[in-house]
Design goal:
10 helices; single chain; Metallo-beta-lactamase, Chain A; DNA repair; damaged DNA binding; DRMBL; five-stranded mixed β-sheet; 344 residues; six-stranded mixed β-sheet
Length: 344
C-alpha cells in the first residue's frame, strides 16, 4: 500500500501478495535480503520481475535460486523506467545491498519507500540529499519506524559502536587469552562488528558455511575477505547467529564443545534493542570506560555477555531529523511484525 501503480515492495507472502498478483502486479521490489522482507520468495517465482540492488540480486539468485532473468538490477542513484514510472534506488545504510525506492510517476506525487534504513545526518547529507532534495515537501513517505520510541532517542553510529565493543573485547582477551569470543550476526548484517573485533585482536574470524555463502555475494574488500576462515580451530573469534548470544544454555553448550581449548565465553550481542532491555542496568565491567558507556555487561557463570547498541535502523531522533528535512506530505509507518517486540 502507498506505492504508485501496480507495484509491490517487500511483499512476497500472504493475502496481500496474492491480492496484488490477482490485480495484475508484475513489478516486485525487494529492499534488502532479510527474511522478514523476502519471506515467500522462492526459486519458483514466476509472477513478473524482482527489482533490487546488485548485492541483493546476487543473494536472491545464489541463496534462493531465483533465475537471473527474473531479476532486474537497480544501480544506486540511477533512475530507470519501470512500467512507465521513474524509479530510483537510494542508499539505505541498513545492511549490505539495502536500498530505499523513490517512485516518481508522471503527473502524480512521488513516493519514497525506505524499506529498512539508518538515517544518520551524515548519511542523509552525503548519500541521500543529492537524490531526494528534488522531492522535498512533495513526497509521500513510507518510513521504517522500528525504533520510533523516545527510549531509543540516540544510537552511536555503527562505526562508533563497532570500535567501542572491539576495545572492550580486546581488554577481555588480554586478561584471559583462553576465552572464546562469540559475536552475534544476522544472515546478512552486523559484519562490521566481528571484522572490527578480529582486526583489533590481530586474528581471523571463524564464519560458518551458511554465512560464508552470503559473504561471497557482498563484494567485500580483499583485506576483509582475508580475515575470514572456515577453520573453527584457527581463531577464538567466532561469528554466530544472533540468537546464540541471547541463550545462556546455547553458549554454555558451545563452551563445553571447546572445553579443552577455552575456559570461558565472551559474547557480543549487537542490537539497538539493548538500550531498552532490562539488562541495560546490569553491573558493568571495569573494562568499560566512559567513552563506551552505552555498552552493558552481564556475567553469569563462565559466560560474559556484552550488549552494544549497534543499530542498522534509525534512532528516534534520526527519524525526526529526516522527516523534518524531507517535509513529506504524508507519513506511513512501515514496520514488519517481528520488529514490533519493542512496543509489547
Amino acid at each position: 500500500a502507498g506505492t504508485p501503480g501496480p507495484f509491490a515492495v517487500d511483499c512476497f507472502n500472504g493475502r496481500q501478495s496474492t491480492c496484488l498478483w490477482e490485480k495484475g502486479t508484475t513489478s516486485w521490489f525487494l529492499s534488502h535480503f532479510h527474511y522478514d522482507h523476502y519471506i515467500g520468495l522462492k526459486k519458483s517465482f514466476c509472477k513478473g520481475k524482482i527489482y533490487c540492488t546488485k548485492i541483493t540480486a546476487k543473494l536472491v539468485h545464489h541463496i534462493l535460486g531465483v533465475p537471473l532473468e527474473r531479476i532486474g538490477i537497480l544501480l544506486l542513484n540511477q533512475p530507470v523506467a519501470v512500467q512507465g514510472v521513474k524509479v530510483t534506488a537510494v542508499e539505505a545504510n541498513h545492511c549490505p545491498g539495502a536500498c530505499m525506492f523513490l517512485f516518481e510517476p508522471a503527473g502524480e506525487r512521488p513516493t519514497l519507500h525506505t524499506g529498512d534504513c539508518r538515517l544518520t545526518p551524515s548519511q542523509v547529507r552525503d548519500k541521500m540529499m543529492p537524490v531526494l532534495s528534488k522531492v522535498r515537501s512533495q513526497a509521500r513517505l513510507i518510513l521504517d519506524t522500528t525504533y520510533c520510541n523516545r527510549k531509543y532517542a540516540h544510537f552511536p553510529t555503527k562505526e562508533e559502536a563497532a570500535e567501542a565493543i572491539a576495545r572492550v573485547i580486546s581488554a577481555e582477551v588480554a586478561s584471559n587469552p583462553r576465552v572464546l569470543v562469540l559475536v552475534g550476526s544476522y544472515t546478512i548484517g552486523k559484519e562490521l562488528v566481528f571484522f572490527k573485533i578480529a582486526q583489533a585482536l590481530g586474528r581471523k574470524v571463524y564464519i560458518g558455511a551458511n554465512k560464508r555463502r552470503v559473504l561471497k555475494c557482498l563484494d567485500l574488500p580483499a583485506e576483509l575477505r582475508a580475515l575470514a576462515t572456515a577453520n573453527d580451530m584457527e581463531t577464538n573469534v567466532h561469528a554466530v547467529p544472533l540468537g546464540y548470544v541471547r541463550s545462556q544454555q546455547r553458549m554454555e553448550s558451545i563452551l563445553k564443545h571447546y572445553k579443552n581449548k577455552y575456559s570461558a565465553v565472551v559474547a557480543v550481542c549487537p542490537t539497538g534493542w539493548s538500550l531498552g532491555s532490562s539488562d541495560n542496568g546490569a553491573a558493568r565491567s571495569s573494562s568499560i570506560s566512559n567513552n563506551n558507556s552505552f555498552i552493558s555487561c552481564k556475567r553469569k557463570g563462565k559466560v560474559v555477555t556484552y550488549s552494544v547498541p549497534y543499530s542498522e535502523h534509525s534512532s528516534y531522533e534520526e527519524l525526526r531529523f529526516f522527516v523534518d528535512w524531507l517535509q513529506p506530505v504524508q507519513v506511513t509507518p512501515f514496520v514488519k511484525l517481528q520488529d514490533q517486540e519493542a512496543f509489547a
